[in-house]
Each structure stands twice: as structure tokens, then as C-alpha cells.
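Notes, p. 3: input format for complexes.
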Amino acid sequence: MNFPVELIALLLILIAFFAGFVLARRGAERSRGAQVDKLRRSYFRGLNYLLNEQPDKAIEVFLQIAEVDKHTIETHLALGNLFRRRGETDRAIRVHQNLIARPNLTSEQKSLALLELGEDYMRAGLLDRAETLFTDLVSIDTHAATALRQLISVCQQERDWTRGIEFARRLEKTAGEPQSELIAQFLCELSDGKERAGKLDEARRLLAEARMVAPGAVRGYAQESKLAYARQDDPICIEFGARALELDAELTPELMPLIVEAFDRSGQSERAEAFLENAMLRYPGVSPVLAKSRRIAEREGDEAAIRFLSERLKSRPSVRGLAALVDLQIKTSDGAARDQLNSLRELLTRLIRAQSAYRCSKCGFGAKQQHWQCPGCKSWATVRPVHGVAGD
Ligand SMILES: [Zn+2]
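Output follows (392 residues plus zinc ion):
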């Protein structure tokens, strides 16, 4: 249904105004108790209609509400939400600002409207204003937990990880909600920043802090392993990489190549083999199989690698595995057969390119590479490798 949202706004505001006017004249002759119950029920009914995109029915309900409720605070809150949901943040801001300017609001009503206004500001990208507003709510200790959650969200958008950590610690104290995993993510982000600035000691110190705050959070180990790989500290790369994979085998595509190389360049190719065997058992994707196949090709030749891959692909079909098999067969063929295999390889390349290698388990965002924070829904540690025939 596509009901012009301006019309709804206009109607509701007129109704609110008109109903207030009529009721003021009628005086307080009705009994309030039963009325409040009825209003509450009607309000939720109206809100449901709005959420289900049935604005005409919502208007009908809000008409009834406006008829008996001289304040129509809830109506305006619902209306503001509707605007924000539709991305009309300017209008949402106006509705909530008008509400806050009313002289007769209870302090609870006012803080609810302030929370809504803060969310409008965030949606509109007015982060400074949102931050001021939520900070005020925290300082007067009204809806402090909700306001702190929003402040954390503002800090994430501004990539201000240091203040994000402060707010997360306050939220832990205020609401008793553990935030250690989020704090560890923020510490790892700070570490990333130090790494980019070439301050590697500080980067490592922050990773150690992340592991101390949340010993079960994988990122602090994974990043430590990568830093060690870059400075060719193979024992540390292997130790922290293996620990990361114990905590989360889904990081195999990211960490396996580093760990295998660290084993090889420190002269431990047998341990590299054992590591790959273990990875094939623990990780459902094709990455370790491909790595193993490349090693077989180097050591025993292409024919042996073809036998190994064909056997593996029978039990677990995979487009990427097939592409690797075709690559090997191109090397061992010539003439018309080689041309045909080249065409097939092109087709497989296109299939692989069309597929997202990673996907967010929360919002479905598809990505070519691994992200600690989903670029779509901003959740942490929800972007995972895609498995199955077309995935890893
Ligand atoms: Zn997501």
C-alpha cells in the first residue's frame, strides 16, 4: 500500500490539535482509568498497522485515540517513528522537537521523546547533536542504558573506539550487561590503527589487552598471528594462528596460508602437512583441500594432484575445486582439448566471481573478503565464509 505519508502526518497533527481543543472544552468529566486502558490498546493497534504498512487502518485507529486523548503523546511518538522508518528524518525531527517543546509533558514523556529525537539525529547523520542529547540523558540518569547503547553506536559510526570503550564500560556498570566482547573488538580496531601508523609495539599491546578483556574472543589471536607473520616471527604466527583456529575454524581461509608458510619457512614442512590434514577435518570448506593439492603438485607432480583433487571432489563437489582441477588438466593437455578446457575455466572463473565469498549471518550482506564488522548491519563477527558447491 502506498499512502502519501505527508497526508498521514497532516491528518494526525490536525487530529491531535483538534482533539486537544475539544477535550479542553469538555473538561474532565469522563472517568480516566478505563479510558487509559482503552487508549493503550488502541495505540498498540495503530502502531501495529503502521509497522505492517497499513497506514489507512492506522489513521482510523489514531482518529479514535485522538478523540479521547487530549495529549496524544503516543500518537506523535508513533508518527515520528513512522517518518524515521521511511527515511524522512527531517519530519521525524520536527515531530519530536514539537513534542519536547510542549510545556505539560511528564519527565518520562520528555525523556522518551528525547531518546526518539536522538535516534532521528543519528539516522540523519547529525552525530554531534545525537551525542549531546544522549550524554544529557545519561547525566540525568534517565534511560541511561538505552542512551549509552546509542552513544556506543555513535562512537562506532565515528570510529571513535576509545570513547566507545568508555561508554561500553559504563553500560556494563549501569545495566549489568557484559560488554567484554565488544570492548575487545574496539581494542582490536585501535590496534589496527596503530598497525597502519607503523606503531607495531603499541598495536601488539592493544591486542594483548583485547585478549585479557575477552580471552574467548578470536580476533586478538588472529591479528597477533598476522602481525607475527609480517615480521617473520614464525613461532608466534603459528602459536596464535592455531589458537585462533581452535576458537573459530571459520577463520581457516584467512589464517591457513600464513600458518603453512610460517611452518615451511622455518623448515617444518611435515608439521605444515599435519596442520593441513587437521584443517581438512575441522573446516568444511575447500580451501585446505586446494592448499594440499598445490603441495602434492609441487612434490609429486600434476598427475598425483589430479588424482587427489578428483577423489576429494567426488565426496564434496565444489566450483573452486573444479576450477583448480581444470587448471591442472590444462597443464597436462594440448590441442583442441586444451582450448575446450580453457573455455570451461573461463566459465568457472565467472561463476566464482559472481559468488560472495563471505556473507553476514545476521543481515545477509555479501562480501568478497572477511570483515570483523558487517558493512551492512554493523554487527560484529557475523560475516562468515559461504560454504557449499559455489562457496568455499
Ligand atoms: Zn550484517
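Residues 5-26 form the longest helix (22 residues).
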